[in-house]
Design goal:
Radius of gyration: 22 Å
Number of helices: 13
CATH class of the largest domain: Alpha Beta
Largest sheet: 5 strands, parallel
CATH topology of the largest domain: pyruvate-formate lyase- activating enzyme
Oligomer: single chain
Number of domains: 3
Distance between the termini: 32 Å
Number of strands: 20
Strand content: 15-25%
Amino acid sequence: MEMQNGLRVAIHTLGCKLNQAESEQLAHQFADAGYTVADGDEADVCILNTCTVTHIADRKSRHLVRLLRKRNPAAQVIVTGCYAERAPEELAGAGADLVIGNEQKSRLLELVREELDSTRTPGRHDEYGFSRIRSFIKIQDGCKDGCAYCVVPSVRRHEYCVPVEEVIEAVKARCAAGYKEVILTGTKIGSYQNSDADLRQLAQRILVETNIHRLHLSSLQPQEVSPGFLMLWQDKRLCRHFHLALQSGCDPVLERMRRRYTLRDYRKAVAAIRRAMPEVAITTDVMVGFPGESDEEFAESYRFCQEIGFADMHVFVYSPRPGTPAAKMQGQVDSRVKKERSLKMLELARRSAQQFAGRFVGCEMAVLWENEVTPGSGVYSGLTDNYIRIFARSQKPLANQIMPARLVKMHKDGLWGESIA
């Protein structure tokens, strides 16, 4: 990917699917402007798109800034994203040359050009540094729900929905570039509303007006699931995977969190989804150690997660975020207790994922194959439409093809399959 007179840009991403979508968009912008988008750290410009949802995310961001500076001292290290929006001085102190908040992220290419030596003109290049298999497309940004623990409303202040026609054109462009799957993402995609079109109508138009092989919706909330919405999945191109936000399986904790649903709402949504799609994967986020969470409330949350039987769970420990109501609440849980609860919930998550994947041993399923696990190994990895990780050996290249596999046994974090040509 070297170019004699081109500037190389490396983009690193931490955090959510929305950040991944924005990083992908930045990569396309830089490539269209003639820059080479590179893998790894060796570049003229290193861009880090940060997350600030927990103190661990902050720490990872500062560490990566220092690491990029150490590994590539001649590069411009530029930081953007939610942490950059919340606390730019902390990232500048870690060694960033330029810190750009979310409000200015759309102007990042222009700002980078201003920072660089104007005598160095990049040449044209079409490589993007992203695998052309699945693409994240941003359809919405911002959230005003005001959950007690969440810093997002302060770092993504303005709610905005991408126009329907712009989304459809983006999907068509990804299809033309060879992508097999697009993932619609945003801060809260269930609130999508543009030109009298909601999320259901947007997805319906994408399915009608494009030839995308797979369409995947990112995180939803239970109150956003309706019978009319679920009818979309009659089109087999929609992935049978719902990431349905939970946070806690205890109603009093949900109320303190200022979530807008109850466990009854959640059960109702899960039941409706499973009636429509018996083989669906339902995954979730679960927080442990929210202020005031008693042993009994944690036990109730644990039992609820057992009852639902998630295909996977993202377990994270509550982290006080500056300026959020929860940071000032009484009853902050001891860090040792939070760690114990986290380990217990993580073990449940591991068992639940194994049990879900195990249901499909002996089945034949279509897989969107990615690249070889190790170059030259002949072992490929990919995902079914209900997001089970599949591994298989093949003498023929499988990358970026949707091909069936017979699933024969458990393997690593998924299943071993036999590729069916």
